[in-house]
Specification:
- 3 copies of one chain form a homotrimer.
- By secondary structure, chain A is of the alpha/beta class.
- Chain A has 2 domains: about 180 residues, Rossmann fold, CATH 3.40.50; about 210 residues, no CATH class.
- Chain A contains 19 helices and 8 strands.
- The first copy, chain A, has an 8-stranded mixed beta sheet, sandwiched between helices.
- In chain A, helix 4 links the parallel strand 4 and strand 5.
- In chain A, helix 10 packs across helix 16, helix 10 packs parallel to helix 17 and helix 14 packs antiparallel against helix 16.
- The longest helix of chain A is centred in the middle third of the chain and has 35 residues.
- Chains A and C meet through helix 1, helix 6, helix 10, helix 12 and helix 13 of A and helix 7, helix 12, helix 13, helix 14 and helix 15 of C.
């Protein structure tokens, strides 16, 4: 059943230090480098140099193949042998191909010596979103008897040189040859990177396109934030700046940089926060209506569900900016001049104290609610940091993201309701017949909170619970049992 | 010495790509998948589906065993074979048991084909803090000739599907069968999770209870914060709100949402910060008194020492909220009305400038000290993020947590002392004969700072240093030598 | 080619659970512990105890060698065998040497039984920056027939006990014996740490000096921040506090704790931010002038380039403190007294409204620009957290650090320009003939922004692009081809 030659560990003759280690105890058969492979590098560019330096530093023996060995040897670390391409390839067990993909064909003369060797293609695509065949598959077509592994293209020469401190430590690898891929994975780990298996060489195009990605999961949330921002900014401009100018001829354009912005930011923040919890509600109601959880959600809902974190962080950014802008208000000259003018007016009117108790209470309450909401949002933002969330278990994570999240939404809505007080019912707040901004803003959050409360109704909650445990409408009980999946208290 | 059958690597006949990879070089014997195992999954629920999708995406061959293969095959990824339970189990090398634990007994007919196979029990307990035997040990009793591995119960179907981005990447595994556990570990790593070895199957109950944990290390610190909060809030309410109402009939209840809260928060923050450094002092003085470090601390002290980070973060949260509340003060209508009234009064009194130099200095100084304390606390909070602290070495970490921490405590205490100024000695500040809040608050921080200073006294410092290097009171010098442990500049 | 005895897996006779695991499927040959090694520990100090506890908890069999076994056995976990040194060493496969380095020589009698065994030296140097031979190499000289591995010295007993939660999880290992090192690496991983291969035993001195490092990459940036701080503080003191005192006899020393600090902090922040982007510009212009990227930068530039993140974070800290200080301004008694005095003056002057439109606009604009700059800097700071930046690919990281970074620099410069308005051209702002602070501060940022704009000029940009793809001045085209390195869109 087991071919003989598989148990034959082919240690390279002159292997470094292989035989020296303790031969008398139990971990013998274990691991990993019975002798380190001699690693070849074709190419003498920045990447080749940094790679050579890194490999040598991790204890590998490196031989560099160059068309012009004499000229290039000076730029490589001392322990590296720089020699002709043929010689390097002949000696090496595993070869990094660090030449531009358009020059891959210049390696064709090396074909005979490359048979059964591992070639690591580190090249990147030159254009974004290329469709054609990947560089790696072209290389594999050129050298069908070699084992081509795609990888390291997401790592810059800079990262190789200074170590994987900034940017990603992940090295995405794919290959049709398991063994070859495994060896490259081990090299990865040993030089301090984290290999990620991307499967067969057919994924090479994806891997080559990876470096061109620019926050793909943020496109929709950021676009959404910007659209809401533009909409609310224009609305507030109309309502608070243009209206007094048109109706009373009062020029208050100075409000645009701070005050209008500061009415816009919380509006965006609250609507975005509601958008974090809306898809979960949609999913729950869809499951309730369908009477099963075994039908896929529409794809827009699926995508939305996976983007909730990004929506939440956009919301937090707006909320935090809103806080700073609000705290800046009393700093401004305009606030100072207005205050002084009010003092003068109060003196000339002979009013000793203009205290309005309702005004005071309204403000104290909505300030406090706002700060609490910001505090909760900060906790949410902190726990969405990768290293923090990875230290929580699933129940903790869902507690924070769901319970704390709804608390934050509730506090933020309360903040806005208290800010509104009874102003929604005062006709003089409806400039140009448009309702004040907070009325528009409150629609969605209140809807989400009501929906959430609806899910707490015992009958609804029970039905949803059963559906999520696998129960299906219109189905025999026995069938339900057959779908005996482990419960998934799904995150939605 | 070595049984024959152990060296026999049983590679599955039709192993994928196993033989193809480079056979001519030195990493041959190394690693990991001479052929990938065929993985079976029993169960067709959410977890089973997500697991199948994930395994297939990582290049594994998956066969799903269902009681109703035809009905279920549509919901699994294309490359998955869905077949009867018997057939799946017969072919597979390793089987994930993804059925509810209460249905484990339905698998008994498969017993003969499960002999010597690995069963991974992914089930969770259904109740919190169960005491009884674990699901995994019950399964092991049912199938004594199979190798049961407990694990994956902390991973949700959602995480399996979208990848280990949110929540923990750790997969806790335990088993009495080393080899089986190792294989599951490798599968873990390959599909992107981090296996954590939890030892023998007797730990299965702990592993099954893991998902029910809800921030166990935070219980005491949060409870402590809340108790202090309630105490100080009531104290401040009595002192600042009820006293003027009772004594002068002045209704200042509007202070409750912001001002009273804002006196309470810094009190909690400072006391909590002192509680971070108190257990270290206790430990040091205990060691000094006992004259040895080789006796265990009482368990409450041990637990306290491990919770210091949580105490510190609670303190930081309160301090940050205090900062935001303070910055909000001039925003409030009440502040505006009070200022206007003061202006009117000043005009009617004919006072040109009411400048009091002492008041000005006091405030500038305590503001500055407070901001510095907040800055230092922020640094401490940032460095307690897992990814930041894991990038520091032990000396750096202890420098930050100890030196910077004491600086923060000193600045915060100074902030409070400057805030107090000479008010602790003014009789009219003692409402209801109760001292002002800051007097109460300062007791513990001053005690901690004094204790710390005491440890700096040369004689004390020397003795402590000797104790921490292993010296023991009342012991022969030779004995001390025998306890020749590597120095532990313990964190306390 | 392959010596026979290398394929002989020497499993220890009484190996725990080795034979039980599934023997019938494909992962047989794989991995790691065909039987766990019996681990010996010499020494009974804190480190030895914590290590023993940790190893036992991870399923290892541990035997402790003590000179006084009876006295010490009580402090070790139950499953640990405490016996004489000779006996422990005889049975164990791998021995942790946890005795003070000055007592290493007491182990010499054990020499015969230590032959071919692995010794892990966990000792630390006792002084900082020692030059002499490392403890590990001395140990290796003492026991030339054993395999000495250096490591675990960066791990404290505390970390071993509570698990690698705080501080670093990295265990730096070096040894001349590959196999021995690999086994220690596996033990590392199994007890929850991350082994880092540091190469041969000649690196042991570096490893032993590691725990003495105290933020080496922060020295220059922090020193730079402090120097700028002192310079600007003195300058501002002269300009804003001493000048009115000398010229008009006005004592405004109360400004020192808050106002002078608050003029100093943004100055430091902006200059430091400019210093983040200056080295990249220098590098680009150096490459343009040299006409090649294949000559090393001067070492100061190299070092500066690797410290940019630290410069940026220092800048952010100052900017954040500046924000808090600014927001505190209206809180102060001094602001209140000044405002009241202004109100009284305005009443007595009979001015109804002192509104100055230019003042208002200036302030609204520079506040808004400042908040935006702070927001961008916060984004930069968050993405420089290790766990966040490691989740971005290289293009995303460079987008944030370069594009967003220059945006932040631009907004911060705009903030300062708007703050300055036309005051740079008013003679009465030149106290003691010194220009106002913001004039000094603006020099460097404007220079950097101009330099960056210069690099956008088509001819310059094209040339730089070609150089970065490997083109060299004064070289034959064919030569350029020979330097066929993979493109490195270097980060500079």
């Amino acid at each position: 059943m087991m071919p003989d030659d598989m148990s034959r560990p082919l240690v390279r003759g002159g292997g470094a230090g292989g035989g020296a280690g303790g031969g008398s105890w139990g971990l013998e058969a274990t691991s990993c480098e019975p002798g380190d492979p001699l690693i070849g590098i074709l190419g003498t560019g920045d990447f080749a140099r940094s790679l050579a330096r890194r490999l040598v530093a991790s204890g590998y023996h490196v031989v560099v193949g160059s068309r012009n060995p004499k000229r290039c040897s000076s730029v490589f670390p001392e322990d590296t042998e720089v020699t002709s391409q043929v010689e390097a390839v002949t000696h090496a067990d595993l070869i990094f191909v660090a030449v531009f993909p358009e020059h891959h064909s210049t390696l064709l003369p090396l074909k005979p010596v490359l048979v059964r060797k591992t070639l690591v293609d580190v090249s990147n695509g030159l254009r974004m979103n290329r469709a054609g065949p990947s560089n790696a598959s072209l290389l594999a077509d050129m050298f069908p008897e070699s084992c081509v592994v795609k990888g390291f293209n997401t790592i810059s020469a800079w990262t190789l040189q200074v170590g994987p401190r900034d940017g990603s430590r992940q090295v995405f690898l794919c290959s049709d040859h398991h063994r070859a891929k495994n060896c490259v994975m081990q090299i990865c780990r040993r030089i301090g990177f984290v290999p990620v298996d991307m499967g067969l060489l057919s994924s090479a195009l994806d891997v080559e396109n990876l470096p061109f990605h620019l926050f793909p999961s943020w496109h929709v949330p950021v676009l959404c934030t910007l659209s809401l921002f533009v909409f609310f900014y224009l609305y507030n401009f109309l309502h608070d700046v243009l209206h007094p100018f048109v109706k009373e001829g009062k020029s208050v354009f100075y409000r645009m940089p701070v005050e209008t912005l500061n009415t816009t930011l919380p509006s965006v923040a609250l609507v975005m926060l509601a958008l974090v919890y809306l898809p979960g509600l949609c999913a729950a109601f869809l499951q309730l209506r369908r009477g099963t959880k075994y039908r896929r959600f529409p794809s827009w809902l699926d995508r939305w569900l996976t983007r909730r974190k990004q929506f939440g962080l956009c919301s937090f950014l707006c909320a935090a900016l809103h806080a700073v802008y609000s705290l800046c208000l009393p700093l401004r000259k305009s606030a100072r001049y207005a205050l002084l003018a009010a003092a003068v007016r109060q003196v000339s009117d002979g009013v000793e104290d203009a205290w309005v108790d309702e005004d005071v209470w309204r403000m104290e309450l909505y300030l406090s609610a706002g700060i609490m909401a910001l505090g909760l949002l900060s906790l949410l933002a902190v726990t969405s940091l990768p290293s923090v969330s990875s230290a929580t278990n699933w129940r903790e994570f869902s507690f924070i993201q769901s319970s704390l999240g709804y608390c934050a939404l509730f506090m933020a809505t309360l903040h806005t309701l208290l800010f509104g007080w009874d102003r929604a019912f005062q006709a003089d707040r409806y400039h140009f017949n448009l309702p004040p901004t907070f009325v528009l803003v409150l629609l969605l959050p209140l809807l989400v909170l009501l929906g959430r409360v609806a899910l707490f109704l015992p009958c609804v909650a029970l039905r949803l619970r059963r559906i999520r445990r696998g129960w299906q409408k219109n189905q025999h009980v026995r069938f339900t049992r057959l779908n005996d999946g482990v419960e998934d208290v799904s995150n939605v």
